[in-house]
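W.,

You were right to be curious about this one. When I first looked at the sequence I had no strong expectations either way, so I just let the prediction run and decided to look at it fresh. Below is the sequence, 379 residues in total, followed by the output.
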Amino acid sequence: MRRGIYLDYNASTPICPEAVDAMRPFLTDLYGNPSSPHWAGMPAKDAVEKARGQVASLLGCDPTEVVFTSGGSESNNHAVKGIFFANRGRGDHIITTSVEHPATIQPCRFLEKLGARLTVLPVDRNGMVDPDDVRKAITARTILITVMHANNEVGTIEPIPEISAIAREAAVPFHTDAAQTVGKISADVEELGVDLLSVAGHKVYAPKGIGAIYIREGTRIESFVHGAGHEAGRRAGTENVLLAVALGAACDVARQWVGMPRVKALRDRFREGLEDLFGGKVTLNGHPIERLPNTLNVNFVGRLGAEVLAGLPEVAASTGSACHAGSVTLSPVLAAMGVPPEEGMGAVRFSLGRSTVWEELEDVLGRLRSNLSENGHEA
């Protein structure tokens, strides 16, 4: 396989060696159903519960509050739809923001067809929602507030603790999509004060197709998949032991990476390099401080982001959300932030990972200097 420089860790991460090792026995000898109470099933059940504990340890919750899912999208869907269907007798109003991932906003839009009332709050130029806007939006019919922990495109970290305090005061369940934050910054549910939190495995160095949702004890929520009583009756379907143990192992490793100071230093040095080369022709998207330590989303003013990346075939990066790769329209997130199209059309997201080294970033700077200068973008 052709390899180059990978700077798209917000789209997907490699599987860490510990997760690979954890999976190996379940590819061969340990094949039992974890619901079967015999010699073949019990090791599988024990492995799932160990993994549940590892996820819970990273999130700072009780293992009984962790439900394994197929990924971040299912976790978000479960939170939004599950709360709606379990609380329709109390109300029908949902509050969210204009920069949520489609896996959150689309379920909300779907529920509108079933009678839900939706308030979509604006964000400022940095992509941050105002907690006071949340407070003002709450009504007697509000049954859910869902605000992502950090944005996948620009990395802005939302004021989740402040919003959770408002939600708690109003006795409204609060969900956060933490797909991009788990393993990068603290996603401790007690620090955040949330009632529900979504995890995506392939953003935390586990395989694709596995995730988890934290559901605070006592939260009224409908099951997302109905059938037999798996996952304490909260999600039917035989547990994916293979991927659950991988997620558990990845979460165990992630505890030592929270904060990512080395990666943050590399990101900031890379931004300085871009500014030295292009000056005001490169502008930042996202909050300058309250931002994921690995994420740098910049506009190459006067260029198209897709064209910039086309000139860097050796570099894996993104023109925005990975879910919108190839789009030639302004990213909905950047539009919601009020980024002028003449700037935002040149947006490129560089997201660094644990194995990123300065030599790679220096190589990218050199290629950018050469390619953009050749094409009329003075360096």
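Here's what jumped out at me. Confidence is low (pLDDT under 50) at residues 321-327. And, maybe more interesting for your project: The radius of gyration is 21 Å.

Coffee later to discuss?

I.
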